[in-house]
Amino acid sequence: MATDNEQVTKRERQKQRREAKIAEERRQLSKARRNRLIAVGALAVLALAGLGFVIQSRLAARQAREDNIAAAAGRLEELGCTEITEQPDLGGGHIADPGVLAASAPEVLYPDRPATSGQHIGQVALSGVYDEQIDERLLVHNLEHGYVNFYYDDDADPAQVEALRTFSQGQIDGDRPKIVVAPYGDSLPGEANFATVAWDHRQLCGQFDGDVAIAFLDQYYNGADAPERLLGAHISAQAQGVLDPSADEGPLLFPPLGQEPEAELSEQPEGSSASPGAAPQASAEASEEGSPAASAGPEAG
Fold this sequence. Notes:
This protein is an alpha/beta fold. The chain folds into 2 domains: 73 residues; 217 residues, no CATH class. 41% of the residues lie in helices and 11% in strands. α1 packs across α7. The termini are far apart.
């Protein structure tokens, strides 16, 4: 039979074991909390580093754009280029009636060409680089959607035209698909052989230069002035209201530039693709699938 001293000793050992267990549990909890704090701190450091990298990258990209814009501005005289000019805003709106269209040649609609705003045909042109003239009244609609259009005339140096085409296709294949390149058809103003236009903005050049073109895109591609810039790029000829200028041989021109008799204008099937010289559909609602105009009637802008 255990003595009183032995009982006391046993209780003390049990107490010591409980205290040791509690102390170990507290140590483990403290360690876990410390590890969590270290992990949270490490994540915070990584997040701040990542945020700093993003901010630094954006600042570097912005500085690169500003440097390029400044460098391009310093070469305008050498290249026979004007500064980028802000043009009067002529508003917008679709020309839905074939008779009105036939009476509204580009020189009637747009007092200062190449046009940067104004009434336009209800369809849009497929993004791309083209060999044939495209009706200016069609391409103004592209401008409304945030596009930049590059024109060149018959006096442009062929090697520079090819440089423009290569440059623009690279941009379209990259992250700037809202671009159309086409011969202008008429002579460009003054001594210019190239014109770059966005909604309400224009630059004329005697020679093409990639840095000057990039500087224009950096400032006005999908620019804030374009009334419908939130619409996506037109990269599928299957989309409603998108015309492919390369679908037929010859220029994509509408009356009175095209020669199709007015009697045939109203025969253009709803939703069909226009051929060179054919009239646009007589409804502004076919201009782009899913756009506000498609559900709310003729476009106001």
